[in-house]
Design brief:
alpha+beta, 280 residues, Aminopeptidase, single chain
Length: 280
């Protein structure tokens, strides 16, 4: 029995300047599954992603393994230096396949349907960012993000590729970017800042047409950790979303950050997808 990979259609460009193509998995010429390969530029590198992998016939015969390995070969031929896959939380078989193929779990995607938000604790105040403070804050945040990327399995070069390039696309106008919420948490007497929260109010639209907001960054100053300020900042984010008419909020948390993952779970966030990756 011969298993092969065949293009379903022509290769197409991505919005970010990459390339993507969908493939059929065939057994003796008959379709038994499909997948998609995508390569996106990250600074001067190309990073690959395997998505839409599905075996429709003959599961348990190694066809998923073949599809994953064949997709990696395609991405190598495109010049990709690493590959990532996203696995839905309920897809236990797919998670097992990712691990068997040598992928490391890097991050969890979590989300929550927002309703009424609890009041903020007494003794704190919330203020917008001073635009003059944005660049310094962004530089410190980028450095911390770089460290987290390396801890999650990226090389120093790959982490630099992910964090390089100046201001992020989601906040091109800094603290005054429309659709972006940047807030800092202080004591009632002005002490602080205790921490900050960064939310993009419309990352994309969900299948039902409702917008999904995204927590781009939440951080608590080292001197003020362990006092519940991370929870308070998340409540601030939820209040801002509801005030803007947005009822769905998502976030990304690195797999090794168990403390943050427990915090989000205690606030009602559920894991929707696990992200895995490996070098090519």
């Amino acid at each position: 029995m011969t298993t092969t990979l065949r293009p379903e259609g022509p290769e197409t460009p991505t919005a970010a300047g990459g390339r993507t193509r969908r493939w059929l998995i065939l057994s003796n010429g008959r379709q038994v599954g499909a997948l998609r390969t995508t390569a996106e530029p990250q600074a001067d590198q190309l990073w690959g992603e395997i998505s839409e992998l599905e075996i429709t016939e003959g599961r348990g015969r190694g066809r998923g393994t073949f599809g994953g390995l064949a997709a990696e070969e395609v991405l190598r031929s495109w010049g990709c230096v690493r590959v990532d896959v996203g696995v839905p939380e309920r897809a236990g078989t797919a998670r097992g396949l990712a691990v068997a193929l040598g992928y490391t779990e890097r991050a969890l995607l979590m989300s929550k349907r927002l309703a009424a938000v609890a009041d903020l604790p007494a003794g704190v105040s919330v203020r917008p960012f001073d635009p003059a403070d944005f660049d310094g804050w962004l530089a410190r945040s980028t450095e911390g993000y770089h460290r987290s990327l390396v801890e999650s399995g990226l090389t120093e070069e790959q982490a630099r590729a992910r964090t390089g390039g100046g201001r992020p696309v989601s906040a091109p106008q800094g603290a005054e970017t429309p659709g972006v919420v940047l807030r800092r948490l202080y004591g009632a007497d002005g002490e602080g800042p205790y921490g900050s929260i960064w939310v993009q109010l419309r990352l994309y639209d969900l299948p039902d047409g409702e917008p999904l907001a995204w927590v781009c960054g939440v951080e608590v100053s080292p001197a003020h950790r362990g006092r519940g300020h991370g929870r308070t900042l998340m409540l601030v984010a939820e209040r801002e979303c509801l005030a803007a008419g947005v009822r769905n909020l998502g976030l990304n948390v690195f797999a090794r950050n168990e403390v943050a993952a427990r915090l989000y779970a205690s606030l009602g966030y559920e894991v929707t997808e696990r992200r895995y990756g490996k070098p090519l």
